């Protein structure tokens, strides 16, 4: 689309806003680091995928042919992003006395359910790490002679063999290196295992033969291989959470650089992807939300408490992806109410058949929306433009509908697929059926018509005792809610 303002994105590599110029004309190729499926995702993890989804939708909206890859890490991610600890998958499997394959299967399904509930579009490929072991070994074989060395514990990447290692993290400081566990024989503190050998006398549930002995690939190697294989180097955009800017992505970049040089591809500074983008954290008052820290918030918990998952999507969109976002139940409630109001406005357009065209009253909103999204995905401002468009008076509903639909295709709030009633979820703790509530409300209405306020109040209190709040004159048109 030529009439849209040029898209600029914040590139973590240069710490600057940069125009998006596709590597392949008319296309956009994006890789997103996926979850390690050793546990349920928490809602902080899901913020990373809501962000990647908004990016993908924005690229599609601009008429680019999008190829999006999200991987599933089912092997190789250690309990520390550096090189220490156990494999997260092996550890959980041992704890639960289950096979790793079952663990991976279960948590992948749970993750996909959250993806769906949050209206995140399906990527072109879900790449499963264990499906690419041969390709990983081939990649490692290519770069090993010039960039790697072998120790008893595995094949290590020598970070001094590539130029400008760590430029993404901008911090190969004492402190940064201090986080990486010393392994005897490592040439540089930041060197990392690209293949981990199974220690003598041990067997792992997941291990493969390789030129360096039985073992498993390193987590960083996996993403380099899957992104390069499915998208080709260089591709357009690589995304992940901001923690990956420190270790995982610098290590991917080092491998990509080594691989591209070996293959005669272009400049030494070839990072594999042109633009690296990172979403900031969802935090709780007590700090970053983390799976490793025992109790954590799952999307299912929100649903069990009666919050529609798209309320959480709305909460994410209200903040810029590069800002920290603090989770609170009040904040979630407010986001859900906002979504509800938008749905009510959209419901009025439901009968109109979307018709292309423009209206002078909508033009400023469209302009604000497009400008906001073009400036590094400013969803917070885009949302207000969408609300203003919904509220515009005396505009042909058919044209309004088309405009709102186009905006919603970018934000993915499902304004024309959901109804207000869909947003009202029964909290798990409520055991009263909706028909029963409606039936009491009919009786209450009759009592009120007959001016029998004692009965009307008694029925209201009755419902309250069962956790149902009656809402007379609710501006959103809900007669009751489960509290
Ligand atoms: N609190 C958070 N807010 C936003 N994104 C997050 C948060 N925590 C992790 N992420 C991102 O979620 C994605 C999936 O992460 P992954 O499944 O590897 O989680 P993890 O690192 O094992 O879990 P955790 O760090 O929560 O213990 C990554 O892109 C990661 O950067
Ligand atoms: Zn990754």
Structure, described:
Its EC number is 6.1.1.16. It comes from Novosphingobium organovorum. A motif ('KMSKS' region) lies at residues 288-292. One of its GO terms (molecular function) is cysteine-tRNA ligase activity. There is one protein chain. The chain is an alpha/beta fold and 483 residues long. The chain has 16 helices and 16 strands. The protein has helices spanning 43-61, 88-96, 100-117, 133-147, 174-178, 219-231, 248-262, 299-304, 309-317, 329-347, 363-374, 379-391, 397-411, 420-423, 434-449, 453-465; strands spanning 8-11, 16-19, 27-32, 65-72, 125-128, 148-151, 154-157, 192-197, 215-217, 235-241, 273-279, 282-284, 287-288, 325-326, 468-470, 480-482. The strands form five sheets. Strands 5-4-3-10-11 form a five-stranded parallel β-sheet, with helices on both faces. It has a four-stranded antiparallel β-sheet with strand order 6-7-8-9. Strand 10 (235-241), helix 7 and strand 11 form a beta-alpha-beta unit. Helix 4 packs across helix 7 and helix 11 packs antiparallel against helix 12. The two termini are 47 Å apart. The site of adenosine-5'-triphosphate has 19 residues, from helix 1 and strand 10.
Task: Please outline what is shown here.
This protein is α/β, with parallel strands linked by helices and 483 residues long.
Shape: globular
Q: Percent of residues in helical segments?
A: 40-55%
Heteromolecules bound: adenosine-5'-triphosphate, zinc ion
| Strand segment count | 16
Structural class by helix and strand composition? alpha/beta
Unreliable stretches covering 5 or more consecutive residues: 172-178
Largest β sheet strand count, sense and barrel closure: 5 strands, parallel
Report the portion of residues in β strands. 5-15%
Strand order of the largest sheet: 5-4-3-10-11
Distance between the termini: 47 Å
* Number of helical elements: 16
Would you tell me the overall average pLDDT? 90
Radius of gyration: 26 Å
Cofactor: Zn(2+)
GO molecular function: cysteine-tRNA ligase activity
Pfam families: tRNA-synt_1e
Catalytic activity: tRNA(Cys) + L-cysteine + ATP = L-cysteinyl-tRNA(Cys) + AMP + diphosphate
